[in-house]
């Protein structure tokens, strides 16, 4: 696909994650709440960056990372980033900052959301 895009002077822009957390990673590891899943994602990113470095210049690691608003949907944890909230953690319907907090606390280097 990359070759065909480039043939027509279309610059590929690739998103590595668009909410599609593999079900196994959610069930076996607890999704992004488990550091192992973060490490798996880092390895995945390194592999695709290396493999396609001569064909893709622009990469987005995550798309709409703070789009966690419909947590009441039955499949929310599996189709929206793989983050499954406990009753205590579930954000309010319009609480965007609360919705993003489980993802923010997973940032490498201990960065807080407030610093960005």
TrEMBL record:
<feature type="region of interest" description="Disordered">
    <location>
        <begin position="88"/>
        <end position="116"/>
    </location>
</feature>
<dbReference type="GO" id="GO:0016052">
    <property type="term" value="P:carbohydrate catabolic process"/>
</dbReference>
<dbReference type="GO" id="GO:0005829">
    <property type="term" value="C:cytosol"/>
</dbReference>
<keyword id="KW-0378">Hydrolase</keyword>
<protein>
    <submittedName>
        <fullName>6-phospho-beta-glucosidase bglA</fullName>
        <ecNumber>3.2.1.86</ecNumber>
    </submittedName>
</protein>
<dbReference type="Pfam" id="PF00232">
    <property type="entry name" value="Glyco_hydro_1"/>
</dbReference>
<comment type="similarity">
    <text>Belongs to the glycosyl hydrolase 1 family.</text>
</comment>
<dbReference type="InterPro" id="IPR017853">
    <property type="entry name" value="GH"/>
</dbReference>
<keyword id="KW-0326">Glycosidase</keyword>
<dbReference type="GO" id="GO:0008706">
    <property type="term" value="F:6-phospho-beta-glucosidase activity"/>
</dbReference>
<dbReference type="InterPro" id="IPR001360">
    <property type="entry name" value="Glyco_hydro_1"/>
</dbReference>
């Amino acid at each position: 696909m990359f070759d065909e895009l480039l043939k027509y002077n279309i610059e590929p822009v690739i998103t590595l994650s668009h909410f599609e957390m593999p079900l196994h990673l959610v069930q076996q590891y607890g999704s992004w709440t488990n550091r192992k899943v973060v490490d798996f994602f880092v390895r995945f990113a390194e592999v695709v960056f290396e493999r396609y470095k001569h064909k893709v210049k622009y990469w987005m690691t995550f798309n709409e990372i703070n789009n966690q608003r419909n947590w009441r949907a039955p499949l929310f944890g599996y189709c929206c980033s793989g983050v499954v909230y406990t009753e205590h953690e579930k954000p309010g319907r319009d609480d965007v900052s609360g919705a993003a907090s489980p993802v923010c606390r997973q940032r490498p280097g201990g960065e807080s959301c407030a610093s960005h």
